[in-house]
TrEMBL record:
One of its GO terms (molecular function) is cyclic-guanylate-specific phosphodiesterase activity. Pfam families: EAL, GGDEF, Response_reg. It comes from the Bacteria. Keywords: Phosphoprotein. InterPro entries: CheY-like_superfamily, Cyclic-di-GMP_PDE-like, EAL_dom, EAL_sf, GGDEF_dom, Nucleotide_cyclase, Rev_trsase/Diguanyl_cyclase, Sig_transdc_resp-reg_receiver. This is EAL domain-containing protein. Residues 7-124 form the Response regulatory domain. Residues 181-316 form the GGDEF domain. Residues 318-574 form the EAL domain. The keyword Phosphoprotein applies. It comes from Vreelandella zhuhanensis. GO terms for biological process: phosphorelay signal transduction system. The modification 4-aspartylphosphate is found at residue 57.
């Protein structure tokens, strides 16, 4: 290994020694050697040009060799050049002190030329190895740092869209939080993305998400950060916390959904809803995102909604109710009430609809319109639906034992779409009937149009098995959903129910009267009877009877009643009906 180009510095207060060492090194090819006789000049020289090796005398005026080493170590620290001590003293204390200061070797005076050259070469060789090792360590450290940075970037980046993922978004939010400048968050939920996955598969869905990410990013300026929060949820972080600016930004984003997304030759429909939250100054990042997520609109008619305390209170109430309903049956908070069904011509009670009620110990009566959708969304409707069927059949058994049920009286039970989607639903209903030894005619089922259409083929199979066993099936709320002749022709349905929405304005609305007439005619065309819900006035009942509607229910006759009150009502109604019929035959009684 050639060290002749290395810069060497010789320091000795005796100029003769310096010249001898310079001549020796020059004779052996060293080309870059400097000699100094004044130790006070060493530091300045090293600052101009740091030598690869210093040959340093220990005993010198003004500054001895130890002091020179201390100066260099204070100035250059780990970069201090290696030192070979030149000394005529070889006592133990001198060696020990020099070695403690990091001296590499010793050259004793008078110098032996071969020994001097070998010790210099050895020291330079060792220092070169140290230097190479340091360079390798520095290179490795640089590679590791770069790789670590790349891995860290990967952990913060969504691989499909190359946008920040949840980890990256949280880091950005924390940066803004520490800056104490406030921020706004737009929580964007994609509607229809799951349909794309089902219809076209994940490769197309991923390309759609990548395409959409680019479109949304082009809509935003550099101040905003767009990222992927979940599978079909995106987040936009805005440096602005001004409420007026954030809805405008949301409208800007929603404009990207005005047209179908073109991906791989497909035109893919996709919708979006946006919840907005904002905070000034220092904020809780997790809380800010949560407020935006809570603000997501649930209505199809609202696309943007800002967070407010009232909104969050409603959302938290819904969450509380959703959790509370899960074990409501076990706590005996659920009950059934029964609303009578009557023939419109003779006013004879022929059945009842079993309706679910929930009495919360703290919140009181909870409307079915509130808690039923919550149970359907959470899946708890399956357990609650089983509870309703079980209790309705149990009540039917009790009424049959007490002689309340005659041959044509039946209890109608509402069935949710999730119940109907179970492959064993019909079998479970029939097994319950067998266990209770209850004839099928005493129970009927009511399903909504939307429940049927969620899986029409499966619904057809389940209902056919029930109808074959003698269980009547009614379509509830007819006229509010698809109202398609196609499915009516293929389903074993015995009854259509006119929704109360068309009954309440029957007297004033020609359109509602016409629709009720069409439903009645349609039902009769398929050999179905018609039940009208929500009858509250005699005039409504008369109009429906004139159209050919056979059965009615509503507050005109009775509100939904607990089982015992229902029986008492039936007794009273029957007695009044007999009196009414007698009077109509014999004429009015004398006053």
């Amino acid at each position: 290994m050639n060290f002749i180009q290395k810069h060497l510095l010789v320091v000795d207060d005796n100029p003769v020694n310096v010249e001898l060492m310079l001549d020796l090194l020059d004779d052996h090819g060293f080309e870059n050697v400097t000699g100094l006789s004044d130790p006070r000049q060493v530091l300045a020289h090293c600052e101009r040009q740091l030598p690869a090796l210093i040959l340093l005398d220990i005993r010198m005026p003004h500054l001895d060799g130890y002091m020179v080493i201390e100066q260099l170590q204070q100035r250059f620290c780990s970069q201090t050049p290696p030192v070979i001590v030149l000394t005529a003293q070889i006592d133990h204390s001198t060696r020990r002190r020099a070695l403690e200061m990091g001296v590499r070797d010793f050259l004793t005076k008078p110098f032996q030329h071969d020994e001097v050259l070998q010790r210099i070469r050895n020291t330079l060789r060792i220092e070169n190895r140290y230097h190479e090792r340091d360079q390798q360590a520095e290179t490795l450290e640089h590679i590791v740092a770069k790789r670590t940075q790349a891995l860290d970037e990967q952990t913060r980046t969504d691989p499909i869209t190359e946008l920040p993922n949840r980890h990256g978004l949280n880091r950005k939010l924390n940066e803004i939080r520490l800056a104490n400048t406030g921020a706004g968050v737009l929580f964007l939920a994609l509607d229809g993305y799951d349909d794309v996955i089902r219809l076209h598969g994940y490769p197309i869905a991923e390309k759609l998400l990548h395409h959409l990410g680019k479109r949304l990013q082009e809509t935003l300026d550099k101040r905003h950060v767009l990222g992927i929060w979940g599978g079909s949820e995106l987040l936009v972080i805005s440096p602005s916390s001004i409420q007026g600016e954030l809805p405008a930004l949301a409208a800007q984003l929603l404009s990207c959904f005005d047209h179908d997304q073109e991906v791989e030759g497909f035109l893919l429909p996709l919708g979006a809803r946006i919840g907005i939250s904002a905070a000034e100054g220092i904020f809780d990042s997790e809380r800010l995102v949560q407020m935006a997520a809570l603000s997501l609109p649930n209505s199809p008619h609202i696309r943007v909604q800002c967070h407010s305390e009232n909104l969050e209170a409603r959302q938290r109430r819904h969450l509380h109710l959703q959790q509370a309903i899960r074990h409501a049956a076990e706590r005996n908070e659920l009950s059934l009430v029964f609303q009578p069904k009557l023939t419109l011509n003779s006013k004879r009670v022929i059945g009842a609809e079993a309706l679910l009620r929930w009495e919360h110990p703290e919140l009181g009566q909870i409307s079915p319109g509130v808690f039923i959708p919550l149970t359907e969304a959470s899946g708890d409707i399956l357990a609650i639906g089983n509870w309703v069927l079980e209790n309705a059949m149990s009540q039917a058994v009790a009424w049959r034992r007490d002689g309340v049920l005659d041959g044509e009286f039946n209890i109608a039970v509402n069935v949710a779409a999730r119940q109907l989607s179970r492959k064993d639903f019909a079998d479970q209903v029939l097994q319950r009937l067998e266990r209770y030894r209850l004839p099928a005619r005493f129970i009927s089922l009511e399903v909504t149009e939307s429940g049927l259409m969620s899986d029409i083929n499966h619904a057809r199979q389940q209902l056919a098995k029930l109808a074959e066993a003698g269980i009547a099936v009614a379509i509830d709320d007819f006229g509010t959903g698809h109202s398609s002749l196609a499915y009516l022709k293929t389903l074993p349905v015995s009854t259509l129910k006119i929704d109360r929405a068309f009954v309440m304005d029957l007297e004033k609305s020609p359109a509602d009267r016409r629709l009720a007439e069409v439903i009645t005619q349609l039902a009769h065309g398929y050999n179905c009877e018609v039940v009208a819900e929500g009858i509250e006035e005699d005039a409504q009942a008369d109009l429906l009877l004139g159209m050919g509607c056979e059965i009615g229910q509503g507050f005109l006759y009775s509100r939904p009643l607990p089982a015992e009150e229902f029986v008492a009502w039936c007794d009273t109604w029957q007695a009044e009906r007999i009196i009414s019929v007698t009077e109509s035959l014999d004429g009015p009684r004398p006053a």
